[in-house]
Design brief:
Elements lengths: L2 E5 L3 E8 L5 E4 L2 E4 L12 E7 L1 H11 L3 E9 L2 H12 L7 E4 L5 E8 L5 E6 L13 H5 L3 E4 L6 H14 L2 E4 L3 H4 L2 H7 L5 E5 H7 L5 H8 L5 E5 L5 E4 L4 E4 L13 H13 L5 H16 L20 E3 L1
Parallel strand pairs: 1-6, 1-10, 2-8, 6-7, 10-11, 11-12, 12-13
Antiparallel strand pairs: 2-5, 3-4, 8-9, 13-14, 14-15, 15-16
Amino acid sequence: MARIVSLGSALQDVYLIDHDDLRPTSIGDAAIFGKVLVGSKVDIDKISYEVGGGGVNSAITFARHGHEAIFIGNTGKDAASYAITKTLDKEGIDTSYINVLERKSTGTSVILLDSESGERTILTCRGASDQFGNFSENDLDMICPEWLYVTTLGGDMDTLERFLIKAQAMGIKVMFNPGVKELRNAKELARLLKYITILNVNKSEASELVPGNTLVELLYRLNNYVDIVIITDGAMGGIAGNSEEIYRFGIYEDRKVKDATGAGDAFGSGFLAHYASGKSFRSSLIFASANSTAVVSKLGANRGILSGNEPLHPMPIQKI
């Protein structure tokens, strides 16, 4: 098994769950929660406290798969920080590189979830997870990981570059799942792709980095910069390729979505968890899809994360 560092955010997710008042209402091409009136008091069915954030979710995937998982992230000094650390400790994840920021609250998301449709709206106060400049790339000297898994750093391109350069100097392989704020700096991000081993993006994100209308076009162009590229396309599945093989894949299972929070984290970290275990490119894509499906079938961003020991059934996947 591998030693893998997860670099990213840590959040407490507070779910407000209801079967009717949070039901989406269509207005043109958009959908809103149409039954919550300004100034009203709304009774909801259930409240649930979970933990999440890209760094936390991915670390849990790696730990459950049997890897040595280390999390680098920021929290505040509050009850939410305790809940996050307690969860990570329970999963056997190294929390000694968490930075506790005295003057910041731990990032918190309030998730309005319609229990009937699974649709949700997320209200986020990022708090301590809104800054990443205090992260030290020199922590990698102490950890000496085989892999560095990076989720969004809130558009902090300087911190991202520091870690990527350090990883290259140490021979550490990097998987990167950029966020919206990194993609706003598309030209700068394109310059950093040379440091990435595996890039995981969706179709619209890929089109912000390179020109192309089809998944195949986008894949071939991104493969000029990155050895392994995975492009997802929602219910249509996705495409993935390296220098030797390309796969077009569908979804693992057409299952009712209970909560889509964490689906992308589960896919990306699921792929690396399997791949870093020495599994094939193809089987790693299947596990990534299965991990994502398992997560959306349960409440919370990481309750459904698989261990890698579960039997998996065939799914639509074709070598092209």
